[in-house]
Amino acid sequence: MVKVFFHDAMDRINIAGKQGISAFAEGDEARIMLMGLKRWTKYEFLNTKALRRGIADKLIAENGYCFWD
To answer: What pTM, to 2 d.p., does this model score?
Structure first.
């Protein structure tokens, strides 16, 4: 579940960062900042569809939320 959350969070951070950079920087400064943003928001490529299905299968098998332990 954490892998799926971080994968989605990195996308949200990247989008917000791009919007922020475009609001106050231009030209070479913006380009350098975007390169830094790209470097720091990299996350390993995951098959989130399979991970989400695995989570759903576990929930269905347990017939409830079983991730508290």
So the answer is: 0.74
